[in-house]
UniProtKB/TrEMBL annotation:
Belongs to the serpin family. This is Serpin domain-containing protein. GO terms for biological process: negative regulation of angiogenesis. Residues 1-16 form the signal peptide. The keyword Signal applies. Residues 53-398 form the Serpin domain. SMART domains: SERPIN. GO terms for cellular component: extracellular space. Keywords: Signal. It comes from Mola mola.
Length: 403
């Protein structure tokens, strides 16, 4: 019974929307190269997004069926601060390549990034981030480095005792409206080194409200029994939509306040293996996609999520081409003593709740299409002004996510 209604649903969506892959192939066949990112800020937005997609792929492929969440722009921020400690140009260009800055040719790179970070943290967008370099107190530090980073990014790298987690946790909580708590579950590694700290909290506000929320609905897991989880629901919901037949998923873009939007990639089948989709994610792909989606009114059903996720990203950096940079650390602008990167802790908290501004207009005819996010999905939060990726996640199993 359920399968039939799903198939009917997909038939309806597929017939109502052009196939994205077809549109994309036709555009590509003309071999016309359109410059998608033209201003320093949108180029920087694309660079931080591409770094983010690479990092997400690295993390997601470690466990192809687990929940994964990242706020990559905060990781870009802390690694860029760290790059100011590289002595040689060779080491710095390795790091810049991983951060995808090598194509920018931006002599004002640090200022452009600083402006982007300020723009995406505007209060209405719902994102707060923390990014700071913590150094072992046992190191003899060069004051010039600390001052340089502080002058550029307004955050002074800090020397701490490895076991002093409270200092770090208090600072992260304070930077994130007290939403990211207990950042470090354990002390920094014992050996004296550099710890790159990044964290983010996101709670966007929908432009269109959800009228119904908290009703328990079925969420079908890839394996195992269906779950009952709280969902929010609203009819006549304005979204932009499209079907990607090659990636076998239906995509919806939902507008949030202050020029932020959420893209949901919902696989046609119940599967938490989204490798194919993950492999196609780039800043350019998402930008192209956003221009192909078509406006629609749908009956929209989304899980209500309050999630918290933390991980040490250090083991992933070698997947991003940083093996040599890590092995042959050259952070002599930080200290003359040999220095290693010892942790890249990252923690995110996100709330996907019903708050919003206005109800959908009552005058429009009831929606025939429905978009029900009731099985594993992938989503991303993008700042539309700069194109910067603010948040990305794969929800395989919504239990065990709640804070
Ligand atoms: C996930 O899907 C890809 C291709 O779609 C496949 O190659 C891979 O083996 C799958 N991984 C798992 C863990 O099932």
């Amino acid at each position: 019974q359920r399968r039939t209604s799903l198939m009917l649903l997909f038939w309806r969506i597929s017939s109502a929307f052009p196939s994205l892959s077809r549109v994309l192939t036709e555009a590509g066949a003309e071999e016309e190269h359109v410059e998608l990112f033209t201003t320093p800020q949108t180029k920087m937005g694309a660079a931080t997004s591409d770094f983010g997609y690479n990092l997400f792929r690295a993390l997601a492929s470690r466990d192809a069926t687990a929940n994964v969440f990242l706020a990559p722009i905060s990781v870009s921020a802390v690694l860029t601060q760290l790059s100011m400690g590289d002595r040689s140009e060779r080491a710095q260009s390795q790091l810049f390549r991983a951060l995808r800055y090598h194509t920018l040719q931006d002599p004002q790179l640090h200022n452009t990034l600083k402006d982007l970070l300020t723009a995406v943290r505007a209060p209405g967008k719902g994102l707060s981030t923390a990014a700071r370099v913590y150094l072992s107190r046992r190191l003899r530090l060069k004051q010039e480095f600390l001052t340089l980073v502080e002058q550029q990014y307004g955050i002074r790298p800090k020397a701490v005792l490895g076991k002093n987690t409270k200092d770090v946790n208090d600072w992260v909580a304070q930077q994130t409206d007290r939403k990211v708590q207990n950042f470090l579950a354990a002390a920094f590694p014992q050996n004296p080194g550099v710890n790159a700290v990044s964290a983010a909290y996101f709670k966007g506000k929908w432009v269109t409200r959800f009228g119904q929320s908290g009703t328990m609905e079925t969420f079908q897991l890839d394996s195992g029994a269906p779950l009952r989880i709280p969902m929010m629901q609203q009819g006549n919901y304005p979204v932009k939509m499209g079907v990607d037949s090659e990636l076998s998923c239906t995509i919806a873009q939902i507008q949030m306040q202050d020029d932020v939007s959420m893209f949901i990639f919902l696989p046609d089948d119940v599967t938490s293996n989204m490798t194919l989709l993950e492999e196609s994610l780039t800043a350019e792909f998402v930008q192209d996609l956003s221009m192909t989606l078509l406006p629609a009114q749908v009956s929209l059903t989304l899980p209500v999520l309050r999630l918290s996720y933390s991980t040490d990203l250090l083991p992933l950096l070698s997947d991003l081409g940083l093996s040599e940079w890590l092995a042959d650390t050259d952070l002599e602008k930080i200290s003359t003593q040999p220095l290693k990167l010892t942790s890249v802790n990252h923690k995110v908290v996100m709330e996907m709740a019903p708050e919003g501004k206005q109800y959908p207009s009552a005058t429009s005819a009831p929606s025939h299409l429905s978009y029900r996010v009731d099985r594993p999905f992938l989503y991303l939060i993008r700042d539309e002004t700069s194109g910067a990726l603010l948040f990305i996640g794969r929800v395989a199993n919504p239990t065990g996510l709640t804070i």
